[in-house]
TrEMBL record:
SUPFAM superfamilies: PHP domain-like. It comes from the Archaea. This is Conserved RNase_P_p30-like protein. InterPro entries: Pol/histidinol_Pase-like. The lineage of its organism: Archaea, Thermoproteota, Thermoprotei, Sulfolobales, Sulfolobaceae.
Length: 183
Protein backbone atom coordinates (compact mmCIF):
# COMPACT_ATOMS: atom_id res chain seq x y z
CA UNK A 1 0.00 0.00 0.00
CA UNK A 2 1.56 3.27 -1.15
CA UNK A 3 0.71 6.75 0.11
CA UNK A 4 1.53 10.09 -1.53
CA UNK A 5 2.07 12.54 1.37
CA UNK A 6 1.08 15.71 -0.50
CA UNK A 7 -1.34 16.44 -3.33
CA UNK A 8 -2.76 19.90 -3.85
CA UNK A 9 -5.62 18.75 -6.10
CA UNK A 10 -7.78 15.73 -5.25
CA UNK A 11 -8.86 15.39 -8.88
CA UNK A 12 -5.49 13.71 -9.51
CA UNK A 13 -6.63 10.53 -7.74
CA UNK A 14 -7.21 8.44 -10.93
CA UNK A 15 -3.71 9.32 -12.12
CA UNK A 16 -2.21 8.54 -8.70
CA UNK A 17 -4.01 5.18 -8.73
CA UNK A 18 -2.39 4.30 -12.08
CA UNK A 19 1.03 5.10 -10.65
CA UNK A 20 0.43 2.68 -7.78
CA UNK A 21 -0.67 4.97 -4.95
CA UNK A 22 -3.57 3.73 -2.83
CA UNK A 23 -4.02 6.80 -0.61
CA UNK A 24 -2.90 10.40 -0.55
CA UNK A 25 -2.96 13.38 1.76
CA UNK A 26 -4.72 16.29 0.10
CA UNK A 27 -4.75 20.00 0.87
CA UNK A 28 -8.35 20.31 -0.36
CA UNK A 29 -9.47 17.14 1.46
CA UNK A 30 -12.16 16.23 -1.08
CA UNK A 31 -11.34 12.57 -1.73
CA UNK A 32 -8.75 11.38 0.74
CA UNK A 33 -7.18 12.22 4.07
CA UNK A 34 -6.88 15.95 4.74
CA UNK A 35 -3.63 17.70 5.39
CA UNK A 36 -3.18 21.29 6.46
CA UNK A 37 0.01 23.27 5.83
CA UNK A 38 1.04 26.20 8.00
CA UNK A 39 3.81 28.59 6.96
CA UNK A 40 4.85 30.75 9.91
CA UNK A 41 7.47 33.34 10.82
CA UNK A 42 7.15 33.16 14.59
CA UNK A 43 5.66 31.20 17.47
CA UNK A 44 2.62 33.45 17.84
CA UNK A 45 1.65 32.97 14.19
CA UNK A 46 2.05 29.20 14.60
CA UNK A 47 -0.19 29.03 17.68
CA UNK A 48 -2.83 31.27 16.09
CA UNK A 49 -2.89 29.04 13.01
CA UNK A 50 -3.07 25.88 15.12
CA UNK A 51 -6.14 27.23 16.96
CA UNK A 52 -8.11 27.53 13.74
CA UNK A 53 -7.03 24.35 11.95
CA UNK A 54 -9.53 21.65 11.05
CA UNK A 55 -8.99 18.01 11.97
CA UNK A 56 -6.17 17.12 9.64
CA UNK A 57 -2.58 16.01 9.48
CA UNK A 58 -0.68 19.22 10.23
CA UNK A 59 2.51 20.16 8.40
CA UNK A 60 4.47 23.27 9.39
CA UNK A 61 7.02 25.15 7.33
CA UNK A 62 8.84 27.33 9.88
CA UNK A 63 10.71 30.38 8.65
CA UNK A 64 12.37 31.31 11.95
CA UNK A 65 14.24 29.46 14.66
CA UNK A 66 11.59 30.01 17.35
CA UNK A 67 8.83 28.82 15.01
CA UNK A 68 10.87 25.69 14.23
CA UNK A 69 11.42 24.93 17.91
CA UNK A 70 7.74 25.46 18.72
CA UNK A 71 6.63 23.27 15.81
CA UNK A 72 8.92 20.45 16.90
CA UNK A 73 7.73 20.55 20.50
CA UNK A 74 3.99 20.97 19.81
CA UNK A 75 2.17 17.62 19.80
CA UNK A 76 -0.46 18.85 17.31
CA UNK A 77 2.15 19.23 14.57
CA UNK A 78 2.74 15.98 12.68
CA UNK A 79 5.54 17.02 10.33
CA UNK A 80 8.06 19.75 9.60
CA UNK A 81 8.64 20.88 6.00
CA UNK A 82 12.27 21.27 4.96
CA UNK A 83 12.99 23.55 2.02
CA UNK A 84 15.64 25.81 0.59
CA UNK A 85 14.28 28.86 2.41
CA UNK A 86 14.50 27.29 5.89
CA UNK A 87 17.48 24.95 5.45
CA UNK A 88 19.76 27.22 7.50
CA UNK A 89 17.51 26.80 10.57
CA UNK A 90 18.24 23.08 10.86
CA UNK A 91 21.29 23.05 13.13
CA UNK A 92 22.48 20.26 15.39
CA UNK A 93 20.31 21.30 18.35
CA UNK A 94 17.14 21.46 16.24
CA UNK A 95 17.96 18.13 14.59
CA UNK A 96 18.41 16.59 18.04
CA UNK A 97 14.99 17.92 19.05
CA UNK A 98 13.46 16.42 15.90
CA UNK A 99 14.99 13.09 16.85
CA UNK A 100 13.84 13.37 20.45
CA UNK A 101 10.22 14.16 19.48
CA UNK A 102 10.15 11.67 16.56
CA UNK A 103 8.91 14.28 14.08
CA UNK A 104 8.41 13.59 10.40
CA UNK A 105 10.41 15.83 8.05
CA UNK A 106 8.96 16.42 4.60
CA UNK A 107 10.81 17.45 1.45
CA UNK A 108 8.60 18.62 -1.40
CA UNK A 109 9.96 17.62 -4.77
CA UNK A 110 8.14 20.41 -6.63
CA UNK A 111 10.09 23.19 -4.92
CA UNK A 112 13.33 21.62 -3.78
CA UNK A 113 16.93 21.58 -4.93
CA UNK A 114 19.27 18.64 -4.78
CA UNK A 115 21.27 20.05 -1.86
CA UNK A 116 18.14 19.92 0.34
CA UNK A 117 17.53 16.26 -0.54
CA UNK A 118 21.22 15.49 -0.01
CA UNK A 119 21.08 17.09 3.47
CA UNK A 120 17.97 15.07 4.31
CA UNK A 121 19.77 11.88 3.28
CA UNK A 122 22.81 12.82 5.36
CA UNK A 123 20.79 13.80 8.44
CA UNK A 124 18.55 10.73 8.25
CA UNK A 125 21.37 8.46 9.34
CA UNK A 126 21.58 10.23 12.70
CA UNK A 127 18.70 12.59 13.48
CA UNK A 128 15.73 12.29 11.15
CA UNK A 129 13.98 8.96 11.68
CA UNK A 130 10.96 9.69 9.49
CA UNK A 131 11.82 11.49 6.24
CA UNK A 132 8.90 12.07 3.85
CA UNK A 133 9.41 12.59 0.12
CA UNK A 134 6.34 14.15 -1.48
CA UNK A 135 5.35 15.35 -4.94
CA UNK A 136 3.02 18.14 -3.76
CA UNK A 137 1.43 18.07 -7.19
CA UNK A 138 -1.25 20.42 -8.44
CA UNK A 139 -1.22 19.01 -12.00
CA UNK A 140 -0.80 15.46 -13.26
CA UNK A 141 2.62 16.12 -14.78
CA UNK A 142 3.99 17.13 -11.36
CA UNK A 143 3.29 13.75 -9.72
CA UNK A 144 6.39 11.66 -9.03
CA UNK A 145 5.98 7.92 -9.27
CA UNK A 146 7.34 5.79 -6.42
CA UNK A 147 10.04 4.42 -8.73
CA UNK A 148 11.16 7.93 -9.69
CA UNK A 149 11.40 8.96 -6.04
CA UNK A 150 13.49 5.89 -5.19
CA UNK A 151 15.75 6.46 -8.21
CA UNK A 152 16.31 10.10 -7.25
CA UNK A 153 17.17 9.20 -3.66
CA UNK A 154 19.57 6.41 -4.61
CA UNK A 155 21.29 8.61 -7.21
CA UNK A 156 21.92 11.20 -4.48
CA UNK A 157 23.49 8.71 -2.08
CA UNK A 158 20.70 7.00 -0.17
CA UNK A 159 20.86 3.24 0.12
CA UNK A 160 18.19 1.31 -1.75
CA UNK A 161 16.69 -0.02 1.47
CA UNK A 162 16.48 3.48 2.99
CA UNK A 163 14.92 4.94 -0.17
CA UNK A 164 12.39 2.13 -0.33
CA UNK A 165 11.56 2.59 3.35
CA UNK A 166 11.10 6.37 3.01
CA UNK A 167 8.83 6.09 -0.03
CA UNK A 168 6.77 3.08 1.06
CA UNK A 169 6.77 2.81 4.87
CA UNK A 170 7.23 6.32 6.27
CA UNK A 171 3.97 7.71 4.78
CA UNK A 172 2.11 4.72 6.24
CA UNK A 173 3.62 5.52 9.66
CA UNK A 174 2.34 9.09 9.32
CA UNK A 175 -1.18 7.94 8.49
CA UNK A 176 -1.24 5.42 11.33
CA UNK A 177 -0.01 8.08 13.78
CA UNK A 178 -2.72 10.46 12.58
CA UNK A 179 -5.46 7.84 12.96
CA UNK A 180 -4.29 6.92 16.47
CA UNK A 181 -4.36 10.60 17.50
CA UNK A 182 -7.92 10.98 16.17
CA UNK A 183 -9.32 8.19 18.37
Amino acid sequence: MLVEPCVLNSDLFPFLKRLGYDYFLSEDGKQSLRRFTIVCNNTKALYNALKSTPKATIFVKPLSLDALKSAIIDHRVNAIILGRDNLSLFKKTMLSLISQYNKFVEVRLNEVTFDVIYRLITWSSRWIRFPLISSCAAKFNEVWSPYSKISLLTSLGASESDALNWVCNTPLELISQFKVNQV
